[in-house]
Specification:
Blueprint (H helix, E strand, L loop, with lengths): L47 H11 L53 H8 L7 H11 L3
Helix pairs in contact: 2-3
């Protein structure tokens, strides 16, 4: 047996032992075909697993889309002259020259009872309504 040959075994530096070495496509899409592999689903009633596999193979699922490069705007240097020379520095603030915060289209502040009231209709448990009544009794 030749010396210094790797005969298998645990190598901590191997790529499969690196927890950060995870495919963003989950192992699919590496073939370049752009489709996901068919997967057997265990635990289905008798015969349904095979039928599901055949259905997946007859109409392959789309793979993960290729990541697109982001086109970010260029960075404006701090020393660049203003693009709005006629707008006061305090525009959008509730003090100083120019329009106040109403031009910012910020959401209006809502009380806790208003927020809970809007959630009652979508809560199947009824817990939100109980919480709403409690909050309302406290004036919140």
């Amino acid at each position: 047996m030749a010396g210094n040959q790797n005969s298998g075994g645990m190598r901590p530096t191997a790529s499969q032992n690196n927890p950060a070495n995870i495919s963003a496509t989950g192992g699919n899409g590496q073939s370049g075909k752009g489709t996901q592999a068919a997967k057997y689903i265990p635990g289905l009633p008798y015969g349904q697993g095979q039928a599901t596999m055949q259905q997946q193979m007859s109409a392959p699922m789309a793979g993960s889309p290729a990541p697109q490069a982001l086109e970010l705007p260029s960075i404006t240097p701090f020393s660049t002259p203003t693009e709005r020379p006629n707008e006061p520095l305090t525009a959008g603030m509730d003090f100083g020259a120019g329009p106040g915060s109403e031009i910012l289209s910020l959401p209006k502040e809502r009380s806790l009872s208003e927020i809970l009231s809007s959630m009652i209709s979508i809560d199947p448990t009824g817990d939100v309504e109980e919480l709403y009544n409690y909050v309302l009794s406290r004036g919140l």
